[in-house]
Amino acid sequence: MHQTANSVSNHHPKQLSFSDNAMVDNPYLFYHQLRETSPVYQMQQGRWLISRYANAVSLLNSPQCDHWGQNLRDMSRLHPTEAALAQCLQVLAPNHAVPFRQAVHSVVARALNEQATAMTHRADALLQSLRDRPHIDAMADYAHPFTFGSISQVIGVPEADISALSEVVGRLQGNYLSCVSAENQENLLQGDGQVFVDYLHRLLEEKRRAPQTDLISQLIQVAEHADPDVMSEAGLINLLILLFYAGHQNMMNFIGNALLALFQHPDSCTALRQDPALMDKAIIELLRFDSPVQYILLIAREAITLRSQVIAPGEEILIGVGAANRDPEVFENPDQLDIHRRPTQHLAFGAGIFRCIGAQLAQRQGGIALSRFLAHITDFQVADEPLRWRTTPMVQRGLYALPLAGLNYG
Ligand code: HEM
Questions:
Q1: pTM higher than 0.70 for the full model?
Q2: Which residue ranges form the domains of the chain, and what is each CATH number?
Q3: In sequence order, what E strands does 114-203 have?
Q4: Nearest residue CA, atom 9 of ligand 1?
């Protein structure tokens, strides 16, 4: 059953919780209320949630804030695995002394040109293999293998290994971060997490023996020229895990959210089928409309006064990407998917110097995934059963499954 705006007004903002089912199913109703009544809102756990676009952009660009990980100064309070993850993000920061970010940038830029055809073939092969199945799960059967395969190719996993690795990682259910291991800590991984990490160790060895032009070979080269204190072997594995996560999980969720939005807006879907040249604009709008990353975590470096609220130094600030992307002060009629909308400065990839490294690749890949899907599947319905949204990690918005029925293959 659909919620109305009224059903939300019963929730006092103080009660807002990320595990509340109504919030998980449709956070946008809550965001509207927050933007109007408490745009700088302190949650029960003490974190601040920012829901207006103008405040979100200014904080993302503000020297008064640290980006969690990328330029976090105080790691002393972090759990060892969180610290290992923050270290990975730190080496990817724009002004880090060792040029890991540049290596990622240049491989990703090359992939845009060189791998678009391979991505199209990957999408076609997957869709061809589904042909004539009356029901599919668009997440498990398409979004997952397509996006995992595509990022694996960029990273440098040999094609012959991708399918088996995709199954292993699929069973992790997005829990990549459990595979990140802290320096000098016994690795407590088991099962599929261990299989994944063991594979990455073997891949590193293989690429050291026979380097290629892929991302992993470039990262090895950058690491070899760096101080071993900057990048240990465990650190390199963690960095690879982070890159798989960034390139796979967000992309996969995007495709699921976009297919759902197109189903819910049949006019847009028809327009895209009739004029595939609209796809580039549509991707930008779909990213705004239901952003796969809903929150970016910042830490206040100093006291920040915003709309009469005082955020104390060290306090956590969640930039509400999904909320800002539906701010009526910036986006006219924000709850409407409008693929003809003039391209907007949405915040789905963040903003400023820490903006997503893979943004262009993501848009190209998203365009390929959706246009091939619409070319192969000429009609589809979302099955009439409740949709389940993932709740971990809470920064993401993505479906566990997107069951489709009434499929018509062209
Ligand atoms: C629709 C897909 C994607 C979305 C919505 C997305 C979104 C984001 C966001 C919001 C950030 C954080 C920016 C910040 O901290 O201010 C980020 C960072 C990053 N993204 Fe993406 N991204 C996507 C796809 C990709 C792809 C395909 C890659 C492939 C290389 C990638 C690589 C990265 C990396 C390396 C970072 C920096 C590390 C981090 O802060 O997590 N992303 N992305």
A1: yes
A2: 5-409 (1.10.630.10)
A3: 136-137
A4: 349
